[in-house]
Amino acid sequence: MARKFIVGGNWKMNGSKALIKSLVQETLNGASWDTSKIEVVVSPPAVYLDAVRQAAKPEIGVSAQNIYSERSGAYTGEISVDFLKELGVEWTILGHSERREYFKEADEFVGKKTAFAISNGLKVIACIGEKLHEREADQTTAVCFRQLKAIADALTPQQWASVVIAYEPVWAIGTGKVATPEQAQEVHHAIRGWLAENVSAEVAEATRIQYGGSVNEKNCVELAKKPDIDGFLVGGASLKPEFVKIIVAGEAKSA
Ligand SMILES: O=C(CO)COP(=O)(O)O
């Protein structure tokens, strides 16, 4: 079964009304792609979700960057799944390395929020990935599998249909130091193997695994060719018109 390539743009804590106009309304809405070959999702900061959902054409999915594990109440500053549903936001990123590092999100908390989001009808881009010292200590797959297990432990087999895994080696994020296609493929293949062994062969075959970390218009073509790379989660380059070139590279893979 072919997995549909999925390109996500994680704006992180960047953006403005002006960017929504130039990037979403003009550049992305003006570009065209075959939705049977590629899925496109943009993830602006929470305060701009409503504006982006309203500005973006329907074939662009919109994603939050985080949610909380309760629907409402005294949780100052947090984002409810109900808010997203009311706005027509279909996705959330969870477990991004910046959330894990700066906001101390633990593996189990990411797993809990992943299950909660899916139970409430959202689709989830769940992020995993090792830090540089972990790679250097040969801990890459051990770290990825530990983070993956916490997600898998929280999910039923059916819920995997709503999950995309983003493999984002922390040393490649925002550094300009992209993983080579071979390095990325090796980890993606291992992740798929882990899913086959610990969830099911069907889930392993169907689950899309995005690569994230300094993806740009120049390196995306070679990365996209690798058999276990089913998409990208793009940071910096998703704020620029070159994001369209990354979408086109993904579309070409399915052609
Ligand atoms: O963290 C990322 C996407 O979630 C990757 O960011 P960069 O593409 O800026 O390295």
Automatic annotation (TrEMBL):
Q: Does the keyword Isomerase apply?
A: yes
The yes or no answer to whether the keyword Calcium is present is no
Pathway in which the depicted protein is active: Carbohydrate biosynthesis; gluconeogenesis; Carbohydrate degradation; glycolysis; D-glyceraldehyde 3-phosphate from glycerone phosphate: step 1/1
Enumerate the Gene Ontology biological process terms.
Answer: canonical glycolysis; gluconeogenesis; glyceraldehyde-3-phosphate biosynthetic process; glycerol catabolic process
User: Which GO CC terms are listed, alphabetically?
Assistant: cytosol; mitochondrion
UniProt KW keywords = Gluconeogenesis, Glycolysis, Isomerase
One GO molecular function term of this record is: triose-phosphate isomerase activity
Q: Tell me its EC number(s), please.
A: 5.3.1.1
- Give me the reactions it catalyses: D-glyceraldehyde 3-phosphate = dihydroxyacetone phosphate
Alphabetical list of InterPro entries matching this protein: Aldolase_TIM, TIM_sf, TrioseP_Isoase_bac/euk, Triosephosphate_isomerase, Triosephosphate_isomerase_AS
List the Pfam families.
TIM
Please name the PROSITE patterns in this protein's record.
Answer: TIM_1, TIM_2
Instruction: Tell me its family.
Output: Belongs to the triosephosphate isomerase family.
- Subunit comment: Homodimer.
Name this protein carries in UniProt: Triosephosphate isomerase
* Species annotation: Gonapodya prolifera (strain JEL478)
